[in-house]
Amino acid sequence: MVANKHFDLTVKSPGRINLIGEHIDYNGGHVLPAAINLNITIRFKKKEGNVCHVNSKVRNGFKFNIHEKLKPKSNNHWANYVLGVIHGILKLRPKQLSAFDCEIESDLPIGSGISSSAALECGITFGLNSLFNLNLSKLEQIKIAQKAEHDFVGTKCGIMDQFAVYMGQEKKVILLNCETLKYELLDANIDPYNIVLLNTNVEHKLASSEYNNRRKECERAMEIIKSKYTDYHHLAEVPIDVIKTLENELDELVLKRAAYVSEEEKRTINASIVLQNGDIIKFGELMYASHDGLSNKYDVSCPELDFLVDYSKKHNSVIGSRMMGGGFGGCTINLIHEDYIQSYIKSISVAYKDRFNLELSSFKVSLSKGVSLIN
Ligand code: ADP
Ligand code: MG
Description:
Blueprint: E1 9-18, E2 30-31, E3 33-46, E4 51-56, E5 59-65, H1 79-92, E6 100-106, H2 116-131, H3 138-153, H4 160-167, E7 172-177, E8 183-187, E9 193-199, H5 207-228, H6 240-244, H7 252-276, H8 280-296, H9 303-313, E10 318-323, E11 331-337, H10 341-356, E12 361-365, E13 372-374
Parallel strand pairs: 4-6
Antiparallel strand pairs: 1-3, 1-13, 2-7, 3-6, 4-5, 7-8, 9-11, 9-12, 10-11
Helix pairs in contact: 1-2, 1-3, 2-3, 2-4, 3-4, 5-7, 7-8
The chain binds adenosine-5'-diphosphate and magnesium ion.
Adenosine-5'-diphosphate binds next to strand 6 and helix 2.
């Protein structure tokens, strides 16, 4: 990568974790994410002409004409994350972009549920907003990034990832109501435990298609619920007792999905309360219950994730563990006592290798500020 001085500005865009509240954002409930100290770094430079070059250290670069109508590329090309946000920006700020180049490097694992995708979308959005003085509000930028993933990538993601990438702050978790977008920054009182991500290094190939399927299943549940109970607008707000009254109306699969969502919403609210009260042991129990629901009711786990969570239950140094992100691979998020992190990682890595013949990678993460400019 060329030295900083050759660029007009540099953006650091973080990945995110989510402590609890998985698959809840698109169901209108609460989530508990935070931005972390792993980042995508993007350097931008304005230039003459029409053609923009975008390069990444880990993918083939691409170019496009900033003055021609942008369309998604076929076959999951990573350009879609970039072209999608530019398309979204141009809708709100027509004619305000001109040619630029950018270079991307990253210490975020890709496809591991830490949302390298949102880090990329948000980093590009934030960088172009600054480079061209677009004056887009944070919320406008968050929505541009989310919509890029819907329209250009084809994943109907909720708003959590982009929100966390923009709104994260050091040592804070974000209790976000995904419906109203009201949020609170909470202190993460987790001493003497640390947050450690364990990456299965299984890429979540099914994630995008199954993600969209789960959305449809939840929409189906909501159609039936609304036909009986007019007060409810989002699945996350429907109490489990109400869902149970629909045993004959909802098919078995949809009933399981709805039960998971209702219970996970309750767990997330509960978790935010116990976190503020400093009851970290209870918080960990809620993480385990979340994993159980994701694995057995929402069916988005996989043998590798289940293995890591089960293994942790036999070790007192770990008080909470669950899969994080869309599922079918990626990372678990773990609360591990600070004195035992290295020894625990060593033993679980050996066990994981024995069982799956795969390497485990680990990241001790700290909670960090959201997307920003660096010098
Ligand atoms: P996650 O968001 O959990 O990391 P996704 O499958 O949602 O996984 O997003 C990963 C995709 O984001 C990659 O396949 C690629 O298209 C894009 N991406 C992420 N980081 C980079 C990068 N550094 N360079 C190019 N593309 C990237
Ligand atoms: Mg993603």
